[in-house]
Amino acid sequence: MNKRGCWIGLILFGTLGLPLFGQEVEKIDYNMVYRFPGSVGVEAQFPTPLKLLGTDYQGDFNLLDFSAVGHIPLMSIPQLQPLVRLGVATTKSTFDGADSESNLFDHTRFYIAGGLAYVHKFSKSLELGGELEFGAGYSLFPEIDLINHESHSAWNIQAGVGGRVSFNPAFNFTINIHPSLQYLYSLSPLKRFNGFTLAIGVTTAYRFGIDPDDPRAQIRSIEFHQPNVEDMFAAMQSYYVEHPVGEVEIRNTESYALEDVTVSFFQPGYMNIGTTAEVIPTLSPGESRVIPLTASFDQNVFSLEGVTPLTGEIQVDYTLRTRHASQIVPVTYDLYDKNSITWDDDRKVAAFITSGDSALGNYMSFLRQSCRNVVNPGYCENVQTAMQVFYGLTEIGCLYQRDPTLAFENAQGDSLVVDSVNLPRETLVKLAGDCDDLMVLYNAMLESAGIETGFVTVPGHIYSIFNTGIPARDYKIVHPDKRMTVPIGDTLWLPIEITFIGEDGFDVAWRSGAEEFYRFSEVEGALGLFFTRESQQIYRPVGFEERDLGLQYGDKSRIAQDFESTLDAVTRTVIESHENEALSNNTKGGWNRLGIVSAQLEDYETAEKAFYSALSLDRNYIPAKINMANVYFKQEEFQNALRLYHDGESRLKTAGRTGSATYARLLLNISKAYYEVENYDQAALYSHYLADVNPNLADRFAYLADNAGGRAADATAHTDVLFVEE
Q: Would you report the helix, strand and coil content of the chain in percent, each value rounded to 5?
């Protein structure tokens, strides 16, 4: 291939190759990443005169040009590279004969030139660009004076424009193909060599600096100060996601700003990816930041046993003048297993209350089935459920056992002491635990039944408390002793001393918990009250492996017997308190109230006596008549109930009270009674009467309006009659 063909091929290669290599530009700026402070090289050029462009060459000559060239890229724009060239060029006649004038115009030209190159790097190994040069030279003609045989010289100026294709087999070594068009002008009368030349040059150059991909070139722009991570606990896994586990101070040691600085914490083996602590858009030169670190562990932390020393990594990723860099500093700490806890924040124990455990849900279902035939629908459902759990745990042999290695009172409030708390499923297997273990189990069982729980801390002790769901003003329907319940917000809560399990009854545990609550509530700072669901917003429940516990649930009959015995005692206490009040005041309202409470608690004998006592004081006392009918209804004596209902209806109409709440309740009860005797037409008729008086109440029991005997919305709808108080 001739020289002109090479030149055309290089141009085509540059033109066609540009889009291909340009695809990488958007991904990485090779010009910045692989910039170098300077280079020196040696170039050989083989110029050819272009006579068509006005060159004054006469004769045939061989031209050869050797030069040393240096490039110094601008730091901010490394594509722009000022250059300097020192060279020597020889021009020799191609005629080889005896004529002495054949070498007359042979000469050597020494020159210096400066200029500017623009070189774009399309990949680590390929560059394309161009350059402009201007310079001056000194030409020496040794044979031009045939008479005196003296050498002569001439000054000249030069200008050139060229292209460049550079190949970089290594960062510090480059090979350039340098096509160029040059113009030479002599400042002497000898104009023979003025004009244009086309040259193809080959350059080998050494570039100073270290390859960015070389480990020695790793950027170290961040200085770390006091990296620290505290000991952590698997049970607090969710807490560490949003709360600091340590901190690190970082400082930018560069004279340039760092961009997109991302600080993260990573623990190999227990994290899928690093946990980002903070992203700093710009970290100015010399600027320092203290970064709080967070940690997002995966489920593997729950497989740990005991204490595991770990080495984590604090990683800082950043960009320095378009170059991406990363630095890591190791930190050591201890990671405790899922049963470990420190009591610097009592709310932490909520993480162990795993109400979502299916084993607890299954056991809770068993307890409800065991007691379903002896529950009292008129007494607080939540309290009855709490009784069932208490006696269920008693039946399987669950006992309080003081921690032989570290008692709660020795760990409470000391952030340096590590205590151990069993998960509910673990306590069910061991059938023993200290106060925190039993509280966790009891609360988890109640929460699995949908009952809101909490825990009470007093010096050296922790125990349970739960929400009855009963309005605070109605404490007497839970227990006549006001100090047996704790009003919190709008509802009543019951404290339970769960360590009495297996040793005494629920009523004793209840009373002990209440007494302890009020005793310490009178001592400033002695009592702490925390709510499970609220605490779990911060300390979410720990993870665990769902597997069958092989739990023996116990004897259903004994659970039901213990439950029924305590329930009867509690309801008898409630009834007796109202009975004593009625005897003391001897008012029809007091007797009516006693009758309502007794009927709701299914003591129909006491209820009948109470309503008769009210009627003995006022034979026309309509509430007592209606409520007496309700007693017949609840005992399924529907005809007797209807007789009294209609008597009450007649009296209310006579009294002109057909718009009263009492009349609405009466209409509902009449409709229900007809429904029970399958007189659906009459049931629907009275349901329509009710809709005129109280549409909302009629909608609540809409099934009564179905003449075909539609189905009630729930199982209790048939027997749920409304009592009347005035």
A: 35, 30, 35
Sign (positive or negative) of CA dihedral 407, 410, 411, 417 = negative
- Give dist(CA 132, CA 48) in Å, integer: 19
Contact indicator for 383, 492 with CB cutoff of 8 Å: no
Angstrom distance (rounded) from CA 426 to CA 14: 74
Q: What are the tens digits of pLDDT across the range 537-566?
A: 999 998 877 777 777 888 999 999 999 999
Angle between helices 556-585 and 588-600 (to 10 degrees): 170
Nearest to 347 by CA among 477, 113, 528: 528
Task: Show the domains of the chain with their CATH numbers.
Answer: 3-207 (2.40.160.20), 218-336 (2.60.40.2550), 343-554 (3.10.620), 620-726 (1.25.40.10)
Q: DSSP states of 264-293 as a string?
A: EEE-TTT-SS-EEEEEEEEE-TT-EEEEEE
Task: Calculate mean pLDDT across residues 471-498.
Answer: 95
Sheet holding 246-252, edge to edge: 222-229, 246-252, 288-293
Tokens of 488: 């919190």
φ and ψ at residue 709, rounded to 5 degrees: 80, 60
Q: Are 415 and 405 in contact (CB under 8 A)?
A: no
Q: Are 222 and 252 in contact (CB under 8 A)?
A: yes
**Which of 211-225, 479-493, 585-599, 617-631 comes out lowest in average pLDDT?**
211-225
Specify the pTM. Answer: 0.71
